[in-house]
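Request from the bench team (R.T.):
"We need a structural guess for the complex before ordering more aspartyl phosphate. Sequence and SMILES attached. Just send the C-alpha coordinates back."

Command: build protein-aspartyl phosphate structure.
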Amino acid sequence: MRNNPIIVQKYGGTCLETPAKIRAVASGLADLHRRGYRVVAIVSAIGKTTDELVKLAYQVSPHPNRRELDMLLTTGERISMSLVSMALSDLGTPAISFTGSQAGVMTDDSHSSARILDVRPIRVREELDRGRIVVLAGFQGVNPATKEITTLGRGGSDTTAVAMAAALKAECCEIIKEVDGVCSADPRIVANSKLLRQLDFTSLSEMCFWGAKVLHCRCVELAQSQNVPLVLKKLGGAEQTTQVMREVIGMESGKVLAVNSITRIEHVEIDSADLNQGFEKFARHLKQNGLSWPQLLASACAGGKTRIMMTSDSESLDALLRTLEKSKDLRQQREALSSVSLTCFGGVSSDLPFKAIQVLQHHGIVADKCVLSPHSVNLIIPAENREAAIKALHSLI
Ligand SMILES: Nc1ncnc2c1ncn2[C@@H]1O[C@H](COP(=O)(O)OP(=O)(O)O)[C@@H](O)[C@H]1O
Ligand SMILES: N[C@@H](CC(=O)OP(=O)(O)O)C(=O)O
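Reply to R.T.: structure attached below.
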Protein backbone atom coordinates (compact mmCIF):
# COMPACT_ATOMS: atom_id res chain seq x y z
CA MET A 1 0.00 0.00 0.00
CA ARG A 2 2.88 2.33 0.91
CA ASN A 3 3.81 3.00 -2.74
CA ASN A 4 0.34 3.11 -4.23
CA PRO A 5 -0.66 6.43 -5.82
CA ILE A 6 -2.53 8.89 -3.62
CA ILE A 7 -5.71 10.53 -4.83
CA VAL A 8 -7.38 13.44 -3.00
CA GLN A 9 -11.09 13.98 -3.61
CA LYS A 10 -13.09 16.89 -2.23
CA TYR A 11 -16.85 16.61 -1.78
CA GLY A 12 -18.85 19.83 -1.46
CA GLY A 13 -21.86 20.27 0.79
CA THR A 14 -24.31 19.70 -2.06
CA CYS A 15 -22.87 16.21 -2.69
CA LEU A 16 -23.52 15.27 0.97
CA GLU A 17 -27.02 16.70 1.36
CA THR A 18 -28.83 13.47 2.36
CA PRO A 19 -27.94 10.16 4.06
CA ALA A 20 -28.36 8.43 0.69
CA LYS A 21 -25.90 10.86 -0.93
CA ILE A 22 -23.41 10.30 1.91
CA ARG A 23 -23.63 6.54 1.32
CA ALA A 24 -23.15 7.10 -2.42
CA VAL A 25 -20.03 9.20 -1.75
CA ALA A 26 -18.67 6.46 0.54
CA SER A 27 -19.33 3.84 -2.11
CA GLY A 28 -17.37 5.87 -4.72
CA LEU A 29 -14.46 6.20 -2.29
CA ALA A 30 -14.52 2.48 -1.48
CA ASP A 31 -14.39 1.75 -5.19
CA LEU A 32 -11.25 3.89 -5.65
CA HIS A 33 -9.68 2.14 -2.66
CA ARG A 34 -10.46 -1.28 -4.19
CA ARG A 35 -8.76 -0.14 -7.40
CA GLY A 36 -5.53 0.27 -5.43
CA TYR A 37 -5.44 4.00 -4.68
CA ARG A 38 -4.57 5.48 -1.33
CA VAL A 39 -7.56 7.75 -0.83
CA VAL A 40 -7.96 11.02 1.08
CA ALA A 41 -11.46 12.54 1.07
CA ILE A 42 -11.94 16.17 2.07
CA VAL A 43 -15.52 16.93 3.04
CA SER A 44 -17.52 20.14 3.47
CA ALA A 45 -20.47 20.64 5.78
CA ILE A 46 -23.73 19.01 4.69
CA GLY A 47 -25.92 21.17 2.42
CA LYS A 48 -26.45 24.64 3.90
CA THR A 49 -25.24 23.68 7.41
CA THR A 50 -22.63 26.46 7.56
CA ASP A 51 -25.27 29.10 6.71
CA GLU A 52 -27.56 27.64 9.38
CA LEU A 53 -24.78 27.73 11.97
CA VAL A 54 -24.08 31.39 11.13
CA LYS A 55 -27.80 32.14 11.55
CA LEU A 56 -27.86 30.31 14.87
CA ALA A 57 -24.86 32.28 16.11
CA TYR A 58 -26.63 35.56 15.37
CA GLN A 59 -29.80 34.35 17.10
CA VAL A 60 -27.75 33.89 20.25
CA SER A 61 -25.40 36.86 19.96
CA PRO A 62 -25.73 40.03 17.84
CA HIS A 63 -21.92 40.33 17.64
CA PRO A 64 -20.53 36.80 17.75
CA ASN A 65 -16.97 36.57 18.98
CA ARG A 66 -14.84 35.63 15.92
CA ARG A 67 -12.97 32.85 17.75
CA GLU A 68 -16.18 31.26 18.96
CA LEU A 69 -17.75 31.64 15.52
CA ASP A 70 -14.87 29.60 14.07
CA MET A 71 -15.32 26.98 16.80
CA LEU A 72 -18.99 26.75 15.85
CA LEU A 73 -18.56 26.67 12.07
CA THR A 74 -15.91 23.95 12.12
CA THR A 75 -18.47 21.55 13.63
CA GLY A 76 -20.28 21.38 10.26
CA GLU A 77 -17.38 19.57 8.59
CA ARG A 78 -16.93 17.35 11.67
CA ILE A 79 -20.44 16.00 11.18
CA SER A 80 -19.73 15.16 7.53
CA MET A 81 -16.36 13.53 8.15
CA SER A 82 -17.66 11.17 10.82
CA LEU A 83 -20.73 10.18 8.78
CA VAL A 84 -18.70 9.46 5.64
CA SER A 85 -16.23 7.44 7.71
CA MET A 86 -19.10 5.44 9.31
CA ALA A 87 -20.60 4.74 5.89
CA LEU A 88 -17.21 3.47 4.68
CA SER A 89 -16.90 1.12 7.65
CA ASP A 90 -20.35 -0.29 6.83
CA LEU A 91 -19.05 -1.10 3.35
CA GLY A 92 -16.17 -3.03 4.93
CA THR A 93 -13.62 -0.37 3.92
CA PRO A 94 -11.25 0.69 6.71
CA ALA A 95 -11.53 4.45 7.28
CA ILE A 96 -10.77 7.12 9.84
CA SER A 97 -11.80 10.77 10.08
CA PHE A 98 -9.65 13.70 11.23
CA THR A 99 -10.30 17.36 11.92
CA GLY A 100 -8.06 19.96 10.26
CA SER A 101 -5.80 20.21 13.29
CA GLN A 102 -5.47 16.40 13.59
CA ALA A 103 -4.54 16.34 9.92
CA GLY A 104 -1.78 18.93 10.45
CA VAL A 105 -3.33 21.91 8.63
CA MET A 106 -1.37 24.85 10.11
CA THR A 107 -2.70 28.34 9.52
CA ASP A 108 -2.04 31.91 10.53
CA ASP A 109 -4.09 33.37 13.38
CA SER A 110 -6.78 35.13 11.35
CA HIS A 111 -10.24 33.90 12.31
CA SER A 112 -12.75 33.61 9.41
CA SER A 113 -10.15 33.81 6.65
CA ALA A 114 -7.01 32.05 7.85
CA ARG A 115 -4.32 31.18 5.34
CA ILE A 116 -2.55 27.83 5.29
CA LEU A 117 1.12 28.24 6.26
CA ASP A 118 2.11 24.59 6.34
CA VAL A 119 0.62 21.10 6.18
CA ARG A 120 2.17 18.38 8.37
CA PRO A 121 0.05 15.33 7.57
CA ILE A 122 1.85 12.87 9.87
CA ARG A 123 -1.25 11.01 11.05
CA VAL A 124 -2.76 11.08 7.56
CA ARG A 125 0.32 9.34 6.11
CA GLU A 126 0.36 6.75 8.93
CA GLU A 127 -3.28 5.86 8.33
CA LEU A 128 -2.87 5.71 4.54
CA ASP A 129 0.06 3.34 5.03
CA ARG A 130 -2.19 1.21 7.24
CA GLY A 131 -4.55 0.88 4.30
CA ARG A 132 -7.28 3.18 5.58
CA ILE A 133 -9.22 5.81 3.69
CA VAL A 134 -8.66 9.13 5.47
CA VAL A 135 -11.67 11.44 5.65
CA LEU A 136 -10.75 15.03 6.52
CA ALA A 137 -12.80 18.00 7.61
CA GLY A 138 -12.19 20.75 5.08
CA PHE A 139 -12.28 24.53 5.68
CA GLN A 140 -10.37 24.46 8.98
CA GLY A 141 -6.95 24.43 10.55
CA VAL A 142 -5.07 25.33 13.68
CA ASN A 143 -2.63 28.11 14.47
CA PRO A 144 0.49 26.31 15.75
CA ALA A 145 1.53 29.21 18.03
CA THR A 146 -1.81 29.86 19.75
CA LYS A 147 -3.31 26.36 19.23
CA GLU A 148 -6.54 28.13 18.23
CA ILE A 149 -8.89 26.61 15.66
CA THR A 150 -9.34 28.71 12.51
CA THR A 151 -11.46 28.63 9.36
CA LEU A 152 -10.19 29.36 5.85
CA GLY A 153 -13.09 31.49 4.60
CA ARG A 154 -16.34 30.41 2.97
CA GLY A 155 -15.78 27.73 0.35
CA GLY A 156 -12.36 26.99 1.88
CA SER A 157 -12.57 23.19 1.71
CA ASP A 158 -11.29 23.37 -1.87
CA THR A 159 -8.12 24.98 -0.51
CA THR A 160 -7.78 22.27 2.16
CA ALA A 161 -7.96 19.68 -0.63
CA VAL A 162 -5.30 21.30 -2.79
CA ALA A 163 -2.98 21.95 0.17
CA MET A 164 -3.32 18.32 1.29
CA ALA A 165 -2.75 17.04 -2.27
CA ALA A 166 0.42 19.16 -2.45
CA ALA A 167 1.73 17.98 0.93
CA LEU A 168 1.05 14.32 0.10
CA LYS A 169 2.34 14.65 -3.48
CA ALA A 170 -0.96 13.19 -4.66
CA GLU A 171 -1.37 12.04 -8.23
CA CYS A 172 -4.42 14.25 -8.57
CA CYS A 173 -6.81 16.51 -6.68
CA GLU A 174 -10.40 16.00 -7.80
CA ILE A 175 -13.09 18.46 -6.79
CA ILE A 176 -16.42 16.65 -6.94
CA LYS A 177 -19.44 18.84 -7.54
CA GLU A 178 -23.11 18.85 -8.44
CA VAL A 179 -22.21 20.53 -11.75
CA ASP A 180 -20.07 18.97 -14.51
CA GLY A 181 -17.19 21.35 -13.85
CA VAL A 182 -16.42 24.99 -14.64
CA CYS A 183 -19.01 26.34 -17.09
CA SER A 184 -19.16 29.45 -19.28
CA ALA A 185 -21.59 30.86 -16.67
CA ASP A 186 -23.39 29.64 -13.58
CA PRO A 187 -25.66 26.92 -15.04
CA ARG A 188 -28.34 27.89 -12.52
CA ILE A 189 -28.56 31.30 -14.24
CA VAL A 190 -27.67 30.52 -17.87
CA ALA A 191 -29.35 27.26 -18.88
CA ASN A 192 -27.30 26.90 -22.10
CA SER A 193 -23.92 27.57 -20.48
CA LYS A 194 -21.16 25.28 -21.76
CA LEU A 195 -18.71 23.12 -19.85
CA LEU A 196 -15.11 24.30 -20.20
CA ARG A 197 -13.24 21.02 -20.56
CA GLN A 198 -9.75 22.51 -20.41
CA LEU A 199 -8.88 25.68 -18.62
CA ASP A 200 -5.61 27.38 -17.74
CA PHE A 201 -4.87 28.35 -14.14
CA THR A 202 -4.69 32.07 -14.92
CA SER A 203 -8.17 32.25 -16.46
CA LEU A 204 -9.69 30.13 -13.71
CA SER A 205 -8.06 32.23 -11.03
CA GLU A 206 -9.54 35.41 -12.59
CA MET A 207 -12.98 33.80 -12.79
CA CYS A 208 -12.90 32.79 -9.13
CA PHE A 209 -11.52 36.16 -7.99
CA TRP A 210 -14.46 37.80 -9.78
CA GLY A 211 -17.08 35.62 -8.12
CA ALA A 212 -17.34 32.20 -9.83
CA LYS A 213 -18.69 30.16 -6.92
CA VAL A 214 -17.41 26.96 -8.43
CA LEU A 215 -14.03 26.99 -6.60
CA HIS A 216 -12.38 28.81 -3.70
CA CYS A 217 -10.11 31.34 -5.43
CA ARG A 218 -7.08 30.62 -3.24
CA CYS A 219 -7.07 26.93 -4.18
CA VAL A 220 -6.40 27.80 -7.83
CA GLU A 221 -3.31 29.85 -6.95
CA LEU A 222 -2.13 27.10 -4.63
CA ALA A 223 -2.61 24.35 -7.21
CA GLN A 224 -0.63 26.38 -9.74
CA SER A 225 2.25 27.21 -7.41
CA GLN A 226 2.45 23.69 -5.95
CA ASN A 227 1.99 21.95 -9.29
CA VAL A 228 -1.09 20.01 -8.22
CA PRO A 229 -3.06 18.41 -11.08
CA LEU A 230 -6.59 19.74 -10.57
CA VAL A 231 -9.78 18.27 -12.02
CA LEU A 232 -13.42 19.21 -11.43
CA LYS A 233 -16.10 16.62 -12.07
CA LYS A 234 -19.70 15.81 -11.34
CA LEU A 235 -20.66 13.38 -8.59
CA GLY A 236 -21.11 9.99 -10.24
CA GLY A 237 -20.22 11.21 -13.75
CA ALA A 238 -16.74 10.62 -15.07
CA GLU A 239 -16.72 11.59 -18.78
CA GLN A 240 -17.41 15.32 -18.53
CA THR A 241 -14.75 17.10 -16.52
CA THR A 242 -12.84 20.36 -16.37
CA GLN A 243 -9.11 19.80 -16.39
CA VAL A 244 -7.09 22.73 -15.13
CA MET A 245 -3.77 23.04 -16.94
CA ARG A 246 -0.65 25.19 -16.99
CA GLU A 247 -1.06 25.85 -20.68
CA VAL A 248 -3.95 25.45 -23.04
CA ILE A 249 -3.09 25.43 -26.75
CA GLY A 250 -3.72 28.75 -28.47
CA MET A 251 -2.19 32.19 -28.73
CA GLU A 252 -3.77 35.60 -28.18
CA SER A 253 -7.27 34.68 -29.32
CA GLY A 254 -8.93 36.93 -26.71
CA LYS A 255 -11.88 34.52 -26.87
CA VAL A 256 -14.41 35.16 -24.12
CA LEU A 257 -14.49 32.02 -21.97
CA ALA A 258 -16.97 32.82 -19.24
CA VAL A 259 -19.22 35.35 -17.54
CA ASN A 260 -19.15 35.35 -13.76
CA SER A 261 -20.40 37.66 -11.10
CA ILE A 262 -19.90 38.89 -7.56
CA THR A 263 -23.34 39.15 -5.98
CA ARG A 264 -22.53 41.79 -3.41
CA ILE A 265 -20.01 44.61 -3.54
CA GLU A 266 -19.84 47.23 -0.80
CA HIS A 267 -18.10 50.60 -0.61
CA VAL A 268 -16.50 52.19 2.43
CA GLU A 269 -15.66 55.90 2.49
CA ILE A 270 -12.90 57.10 4.81
CA ASP A 271 -12.03 60.71 5.67
CA SER A 272 -8.35 60.92 4.74
CA ALA A 273 -5.75 63.22 3.20
CA ASP A 274 -4.43 60.51 0.88
CA LEU A 275 -4.74 56.82 0.04
CA ASN A 276 -2.10 55.84 2.60
CA GLN A 277 -3.98 57.50 5.44
CA GLY A 278 -7.23 55.99 4.19
CA PHE A 279 -5.76 52.49 4.30
CA GLU A 280 -4.14 53.14 7.70
CA LYS A 281 -7.50 54.10 9.17
CA PHE A 282 -9.19 51.10 7.52
CA ALA A 283 -6.54 48.68 8.82
CA ARG A 284 -6.82 50.12 12.35
CA HIS A 285 -10.60 49.86 12.25
CA LEU A 286 -10.48 46.19 11.20
CA LYS A 287 -7.94 45.38 13.93
CA GLN A 288 -9.87 47.20 16.66
CA ASN A 289 -13.00 45.27 15.75
CA GLY A 290 -11.28 41.89 15.38
CA LEU A 291 -12.25 41.68 11.69
CA SER A 292 -10.19 40.23 8.87
CA TRP A 293 -9.53 42.04 5.59
CA PRO A 294 -12.27 41.74 2.98
CA GLN A 295 -11.35 41.07 -0.66
CA LEU A 296 -10.45 44.50 -2.05
CA LEU A 297 -11.49 45.22 -5.64
CA ALA A 298 -10.51 48.87 -6.19
CA SER A 299 -9.74 52.03 -4.24
CA ALA A 300 -9.17 55.71 -4.93
CA CYS A 301 -8.68 58.93 -2.98
CA ALA A 302 -10.20 62.26 -4.01
CA GLY A 303 -11.55 65.33 -2.21
CA GLY A 304 -10.28 64.20 1.20
CA LYS A 305 -11.96 60.80 1.01
CA THR A 306 -10.61 57.32 0.31
CA ARG A 307 -13.18 54.99 -1.24
CA ILE A 308 -12.64 51.25 -0.99
CA MET A 309 -14.66 48.85 -3.12
CA MET A 310 -14.71 45.38 -1.61
CA THR A 311 -16.48 42.07 -1.29
CA SER A 312 -16.56 39.11 1.10
CA ASP A 313 -19.12 36.60 2.28
CA SER A 314 -22.35 38.18 3.49
CA GLU A 315 -21.74 37.52 7.17
CA SER A 316 -18.33 39.24 7.12
CA LEU A 317 -19.65 42.21 5.12
CA ASP A 318 -22.59 42.67 7.50
CA ALA A 319 -20.26 42.44 10.51
CA LEU A 320 -17.98 45.10 8.99
CA LEU A 321 -20.84 47.44 8.03
CA ARG A 322 -22.31 47.22 11.54
CA THR A 323 -19.04 48.40 13.06
CA LEU A 324 -19.05 51.46 10.74
CA GLU A 325 -22.18 52.80 12.48
CA LYS A 326 -20.04 53.66 15.52
CA SER A 327 -17.14 55.15 13.54
CA LYS A 328 -16.46 58.86 13.09
CA ASP A 329 -14.21 58.68 10.00
CA LEU A 330 -15.50 55.58 8.20
CA ARG A 331 -18.92 55.09 6.66
CA GLN A 332 -20.76 52.90 4.18
CA GLN A 333 -20.75 54.85 0.95
CA ARG A 334 -23.67 53.52 -1.05
CA GLU A 335 -26.08 50.66 -1.59
CA ALA A 336 -24.66 47.26 -2.50
CA LEU A 337 -23.76 46.71 -6.16
CA SER A 338 -22.80 43.59 -8.13
CA SER A 339 -20.14 42.87 -10.72
CA VAL A 340 -20.30 41.00 -14.00
CA SER A 341 -17.01 39.82 -15.50
CA LEU A 342 -15.99 38.54 -18.89
CA THR A 343 -12.86 36.39 -18.64
CA CYS A 344 -10.87 35.87 -21.83
CA PHE A 345 -8.27 33.43 -23.05
CA GLY A 346 -4.93 34.98 -23.97
CA GLY A 347 -5.71 38.49 -22.75
CA VAL A 348 -8.58 40.92 -23.13
CA SER A 349 -9.02 42.52 -26.57
CA SER A 350 -8.94 46.33 -26.42
CA ASP A 351 -12.49 46.87 -27.64
CA LEU A 352 -14.16 44.33 -25.33
CA PRO A 353 -15.03 46.81 -22.53
CA PHE A 354 -16.88 48.97 -25.08
CA LYS A 355 -18.70 45.95 -26.58
CA ALA A 356 -19.73 44.75 -23.11
CA ILE A 357 -21.00 48.16 -22.02
CA GLN A 358 -23.02 48.39 -25.27
CA VAL A 359 -24.59 44.95 -24.73
CA LEU A 360 -25.63 45.99 -21.23
CA GLN A 361 -26.95 49.33 -22.47
CA HIS A 362 -29.02 47.48 -25.08
CA HIS A 363 -30.66 45.58 -22.20
CA GLY A 364 -31.31 48.77 -20.25
CA ILE A 365 -28.49 48.15 -17.78
CA VAL A 366 -26.15 51.03 -17.00
CA ALA A 367 -22.66 50.05 -15.87
CA ASP A 368 -21.39 52.23 -13.05
CA LYS A 369 -17.69 51.45 -13.39
CA CYS A 370 -15.31 49.28 -15.42
CA VAL A 371 -12.27 47.64 -13.77
CA LEU A 372 -9.77 45.91 -16.05
CA SER A 373 -7.39 43.08 -15.31
CA PRO A 374 -5.15 41.25 -17.83
CA HIS A 375 -7.72 38.52 -18.46
CA SER A 376 -11.02 40.13 -17.47
CA VAL A 377 -13.35 43.01 -18.12
CA ASN A 378 -15.25 43.65 -14.91
CA LEU A 379 -18.32 45.88 -14.86
CA ILE A 380 -19.97 47.16 -11.73
CA ILE A 381 -23.76 47.25 -12.04
CA PRO A 382 -26.87 47.65 -9.85
CA ALA A 383 -27.44 44.46 -7.86
CA GLU A 384 -31.01 44.05 -9.17
CA ASN A 385 -29.68 43.73 -12.76
CA ARG A 386 -27.19 40.97 -11.97
CA GLU A 387 -28.91 37.95 -13.53
CA ALA A 388 -30.11 39.90 -16.59
CA ALA A 389 -26.56 41.21 -17.11
CA ILE A 390 -25.04 37.71 -16.90
CA LYS A 391 -27.55 36.38 -19.45
CA ALA A 392 -26.99 39.36 -21.77
CA LEU A 393 -23.18 39.16 -21.68
CA HIS A 394 -23.23 35.39 -22.24
CA SER A 395 -24.21 36.22 -25.85
CA LEU A 396 -20.60 37.41 -26.37
CA ILE A 397 -19.29 33.83 -25.90
N1 LIG B 1 -18.89 29.33 -13.90
C1 LIG B 1 -19.49 28.40 -13.15
N2 LIG B 1 -19.40 27.11 -13.51
C2 LIG B 1 -19.99 26.15 -12.76
N3 LIG B 1 -20.70 26.39 -11.63
C3 LIG B 1 -20.83 27.66 -11.23
C4 LIG B 1 -20.23 28.72 -11.96
N4 LIG B 1 -20.50 29.87 -11.31
C5 LIG B 1 -21.23 29.56 -10.23
N5 LIG B 1 -21.45 28.22 -10.16
C6 LIG B 1 -22.22 27.55 -9.10
O1 LIG B 1 -21.29 26.88 -8.28
C7 LIG B 1 -21.94 25.80 -7.61
C8 LIG B 1 -20.89 24.74 -7.42
O2 LIG B 1 -21.33 23.47 -7.30
P1 LIG B 1 -21.93 22.75 -6.00
O3 LIG B 1 -21.59 21.31 -6.15
O4 LIG B 1 -23.35 23.15 -5.86
O5 LIG B 1 -21.11 23.45 -4.82
P2 LIG B 1 -20.38 22.87 -3.53
O6 LIG B 1 -19.30 21.99 -4.01
O7 LIG B 1 -19.83 24.13 -2.90
O8 LIG B 1 -21.39 22.20 -2.68
C9 LIG B 1 -23.12 25.41 -8.49
O9 LIG B 1 -24.25 25.47 -7.69
C10 LIG B 1 -23.20 26.48 -9.57
O10 LIG B 1 -24.51 27.00 -9.64
N1 LIG C 1 -18.82 24.59 4.66
C1 LIG C 1 -18.02 25.73 4.30
C2 LIG C 1 -16.79 25.35 3.52
C3 LIG C 1 -16.93 24.86 2.13
O1 LIG C 1 -15.93 24.70 1.44
O2 LIG C 1 -18.15 24.57 1.65
P1 LIG C 1 -18.51 24.04 0.11
O3 LIG C 1 -17.38 23.19 -0.36
O4 LIG C 1 -19.78 23.26 0.26
O5 LIG C 1 -18.67 25.27 -0.74
C4 LIG C 1 -18.87 26.76 3.58
O6 LIG C 1 -20.06 26.55 3.42
O7 LIG C 1 -18.34 27.79 3.23
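Two things stood out. The CA atoms of residues 177 and 383 lie 27 Å apart. Residues 12-13, 44-45, 50, 76, 138-139, 154-157 surround aspartyl phosphate (ligand 2) (CB under 6 Å).
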